[in-house]
Amino acid sequence: MASLPLSHPLRSEAPYSQYFSTISEAVQSSSEGDRIVVHPGVYNETVALDKPVQLIGAGPEKVLLVNSSLTVVDVKPSAGDATIANMEIKFDAPEDNPSLRQYCIQVPGGASPNVHNCHFTNTSFCGACVYIHGSGARPRVTHCTIANANNVGVFVDDHAHGYFEHNNIHGNKLAGVWIKNYASPVFRENEVHHGKDVGFFVFQDGQGVLESNDIHSNRIAGIEIKNDANPIIYRCSIHHGSTGGVYVHDRGRGQFIENKIFANTYAGVWITSESNPTLRDNEIFGGLQGGVYFFGGGRGVLENNNIHSNTLAGVQIRTGSDPIIRNNEIHHGLHGGIYVHDSGRGLVEVTRFIRMRWLEFGSLLESACSEAEQDS
Question: InterPro entries this protein is in (predicted)?
């Protein structure tokens, strides 16, 4: 391993080259702004990244950075906007301690590294692949694969931020992404899929923006929100979940705007236990059960949504739930438009029903529906 060998095409940019046997030695000997080129090979070590250097591998299929005892890349606040790119980074938990809580990469408060085109996996049952925590943590993670972890793919915690774009997050045993404790990252145009749990889990006051992500084929919900978490979900596709598309419970909130929620095994959206999200301008369709399901004291606002072609009711309200349903179009369902029963309540305003099999209202507080058309 060396920094810019003599034959390297970028050799002219550096005054000289130095060669090292480990990445850690190269980082320790480098100066701010240096570029360290990592040649193909397996590097069994940990790297404390404590200065703003560029750590560039020959490609994730050629460079493996691995360790079995400590976090593999431990970014320090002094690393600033360091770059880590083009390598595979793996924490391989020891067989005698598979629950060792360590990470592939850890980014603390004050650090804002750029992480590009890396592959991450973690065999520990307790450690995430990518762990970001603390106020001022703002990594930029792009075009990475975060996959097949025995725990969580990405964990953003404790007021951390961060920007994630064009990543492939899949096959993780727990959630693809955890967001909690006032963390507020941005996830844009990622694919989060085929997880063995949920896609995104936002909880304990987690926040953030999820925009234009493709979230599909997860074993539980595509997105789960609870415990006063309040993210913004905008223009995402949430589909082909093995259970539901979105699950909001235990005082969860959230704003869902212009999403496509479709082809999920259970309801497209579940809202329960004092949760109060807002769903506006979404298309919720093609569910193997219902469109939106309020139960167990669920609340929320459904406004300007297009809810159609679901197997069961477009909207079902029961067991003390009390939502506001305003100016939606609910149509072409194989069951009811809005089905209210078992002590359900709610307010329905200016909602259009087209070609439904049947409609049933239970104990709605007020019905101001218009333009209702119902096939017999």
Answer: Beta_helix, Carb-bd_sugar_hydrolysis-dom, Para_beta_helix_rpt-2, PbH1, Pectin_lyas_fold, Pectin_lyase_fold/virulence, SCF-Subunits/Alg-Epimerases
